[in-house]
Write a structure and sequence with these properties.
heterodimer, A: 351 residues, alpha/beta, D-Maltodextrin-Binding Protein, domain 2, two-stranded antiparallel sheet, 15 helices, 14 strands, 41% helix, B: 289 residues, MetI-like fold, 13 helices, globular, cell membrane (chain B)
């Protein structure tokens, strides 16, 4: 089982070594695979408009992204960083301040996202908000006559063995924090979270790890309810025609914000600014939502350009929702490991 | 093999060298070097790649002993390895016997091909196809309910039996192959001699066939037991909430929290435990073989 990791490590080292040379009119972008920035139609349009050539590289975890930035100074021009990791990247001097006056669409970003304290230090902007979304609940419509409103539905005896939760320690612990009425970024009573999650375990069918897992379980009618990402629930309903609907429980939900940054030593800062501007442009966003399905844009004008009944406008834009969601703040490595230890213990005790 | 070469004449070694170099070069580059890097990592506080200060420590190994969780999981994984190996013997040995001693010619080739076939498909594909068969409303459930006059509910998916089924399916060809080779080598005249001296079928099996095919059984068992103990893909996909094993938590350390040092330390503890088990078992097995 060690071999694939090692091969991956060796390959990665080889890639690092060979990819150190970047030319000036190329824009090197580092992002998740299949996450907007690598859509062929978007790249073609950008290359035609600006004359820059886009070179995409991908990461599979935030830790991998940080490692790639550390080991390849000067290679990347644009990097997509979850706002909760922006602080760490800035503290390690991996990203540089952004001159937002060069990004015309920045002015349309909604004030609460642009003003996020996670993306700015000493009055300088280190991240341009791109999209945001929720980790909330989704239900199998066949199992409910009226959608539930409370997170407590996950613990309802009626759904025993038909509940799913993502196999992710941080998400599980933060979900437990919401269920026990705590602040996800400042969990005071970890024992309560543990007890709450322990009592959830007998309800669970399985842990999901990818969108495909979730959709397959609904398609074969194996689950009633589970944690799910807002954008994925939308995609399941509109693109895969599955009986899935998102529930944002009255107790709240975990929200995340993704932003673009420019690494220290980027060779093509002008190209990077142009690329970021395109990514937050309403035209790109509407096309992305229609063709592929996407999270909610941080650009207010981009959301407004969607049809009135679009999920990302109607449900996610509801002011009542904004009031009860909690944005994820940075998590230290020690916390992350403590969460994983707790999560593993819960999973072992259920055996 | 190396010993034989060394005791051979000097000229023998020289002529053997070009034949050995590719294999040993490959082993050095692909296995020895990365593995030593992992040993090195397992004694570190931080991965040097992360750019943080690091130092040498034994903490990663101490973590294993400090938390009962890892011991519980290691025992669960060892039990899984034993169960899967046992089922592979139960299913694979008779099949190998029939292949080696009953079928001849074309029909043997055809049956042999059927045994090897799962080997040629991708492991992940096999696991996902089991997922389609085992779940409620899946192929097995639907087929049985179509035939049986009464209603039964089969939902094996996301359970311990599902993990066993998936792993046995993946590994049973090893058992068939190793047992087939030793069974085929048994001289038919020995069997005829036994029979002419009045041995019953059971006595033949116990006194002649099993002892002579023991090397194949042992080799097959070792080939299956070791990878099953460290398996993580099958438990994760088929096991559901009961699918946490030692292999899956090692994977978590590498993938979820990027704690390579702890992941590496846990891997080497597993390696040590497996080696100890094989060493303890070897006198018994040697005698049997």
């Amino acid at each position: 089982m060690r071999m694939p990791k090692l091969t991956a490590f060796l390959m990665a080292t080889a890639v690092f070594a060979s990819a150190l040379v970047a030319s000036a009119d190329e824009v090197h972008v580092l992002n998740w695979k299949g996450y907007g920035a690598d859509e062929p139609w978007a790249i073609a349009a950008f290359e035609k408009a600006t004359g820059n050539k886009v070179v995409n590289d991908f990461f599979n975890s935030e830790q991998e992204m940080l490692t790639k930035l550390r080991t390849n100074p000067g290679l990347y021009d644009v990097v997509m960083i979850n706002a909760a990791f922006n602080d760490q990247a800035m503290a390690e001097k991996l990203i540089q301040p952004i001159d937002v006056s060069k990004i015309p669409n920045y002015a349309d970003i909604s004030a609460d996202k642009a003003g996020s304290p996670m993306l700015a230090r000493d009055g300088k902007v280190y991240g341009v908000p791109w999209v945001w979304g929720l980790t909330a609940l989704a239900i199998n419509e066949k199992a409910f006559e009226t959608p539930p409103t409370s997170i407590a539905e996950m613990w309802n005896e009626a759904h025993k063995g038909r509940v799913t939760i993502r196999d992710d320690a941080v998400e599980a612990v933060q979900f437990g924090a919401i269920a026990t009425g705590q602040n996800i970024n400042d969990i005071k009573d970890m024992e309560a979270v543990k007890a709450k999650l322990t009592s959830l375990m007998p309800q669970i069918k399985t842990f999901w790890s990818s969108e495909n897992d979730w959709n397959q379980m609904v398609a074969s009618n194996q689950i009633d309810i589970g944690t799910y990402w807002s954008g994925s629930a939308d995609r399941a309903k509109t693109h895969f025609k599955l009986p899935v609907s998102l529930v944002i429980p009255r107790e709240g939900a975990v929200a995340w914000l993704d932003a673009f940054s420019i690494p220290v030593g980027a060779k093509n800062v002008a190209g990077a600014e142009a690329f970021i501007n395109t990514m937050i442009d309403p035209k790109f966003y509407v096309e992305w939502v229609t063709k592929v399905g996407a999270p909610v844009s941080a650009n207010a004008k981009a959301v407004a350009a969607l049809p009135e009944d679009a999920f990302n406008r109607k449900v996610m834009g509801d002011p009542g929702v904004a009031k009860r969601i909690q944005f994820q703040a940075p998590i230290s490595d020690a916390q992350r490991e403590a969460y994983l230890a707790l999560w593993q213990e819960l999973k072992v005790n259920v055996k | 093999m190396a010993g034989q070469v060394a005791t051979g004449a000097r000229s023998g070694l020289r002529s053997a060298l070009p034949l050995l170099v590719p294999a040993y070069l490959w082993l050095t580059v692909a296995i020895f070097m990365p593995l030593s890097a992992m040993v090195f990592f397992s004694f570190m506080t931080e991965l040097p790649l992360s750019g943080k200060a690091w130092s040498f420590t034994l903490d990663n190994y101490a973590t294993f002993f400090a938390q009962g969780l890892y011991r519980t999981l290691l025992l669960a994984s060892l039990k899984l390895g034993l169960e899967v190996t046992l089922w592979c013997v139960v299913i694979g040995y008779p099949a190998a016997y029939v292949l080696a001693k009953v079928f001849r010619g074309r029909s043997r080739e055809a049956i042999f091909l059927l045994v090897i076939l799962p080997f040629w498909s991708n492991g992940l594909v096999r696991i996902f196809s089991w997922a389609m068969v085992l779940r409620e409303g899946g192929i097995l459930d639907t087929a049985l309910n179509a035939v049986l006059p009464f209603k039964i509910n089969i939902d094996l998916m996301y359970s311990y039996p599902a993990v066993i089924i998936g792993l046995v399916h993946s590994y049973v060809p090893y058992m068939v192959l190793t047992c087939y080779l030793t069974l085929q080598a048994i001289d038919d005249s020995l069997i005829e001699a036994g029979r002419s001296l009045g041995a019953s079928r059971l006595q033949m099996l116990k006194r002649v066939i099993i002892p002579l095919s023991m090397p194949g059984l042992v080799a097959g068992a070792a080939l299956i037991f070791v990878p099953v103990v460290g398996s993580f893909m099958e438990p994760r996909i088929l096991g559901g909430r009961t699918g946490t094993f030692y292999g899956t938590i090692i994977e978590d350390q590498f993938v979820a929290v990027f704690n390579w040092p702890l992941g590496a330390a846990l891997s080497f503890i597993l390696l040590a435990v497996v080696l100890v088990i094989l060493a303890l078992a070897s006198p018994v097995l040697k005698r049997a073989a």
